[in-house]
Amino acid sequence: MNSDDGDLENQAELEEKTRLINQVLELQHTLEDLSARVDAVKEENLKLKSENQVLGQYIENLMSASSVFQTTDPRNKRTK
What we know:
Elements: H1 3-65
């Protein structure tokens, strides 16, 4: 093996290492992006849950204030 073969082999190894490093960095960035998206979705989910609780309570209050949704007691029937 002469020095040209060794140089070519070293060059190929260096290119492969560079390619792998770039691939790892790209995957790290992808993971960071996905993690940020997951955090944003979790935050939005908590916000929506809170809003749903408020709306649910509001609807409950409206229903309890409306005579249409009052429970009927058979003992208290009005006579006509």
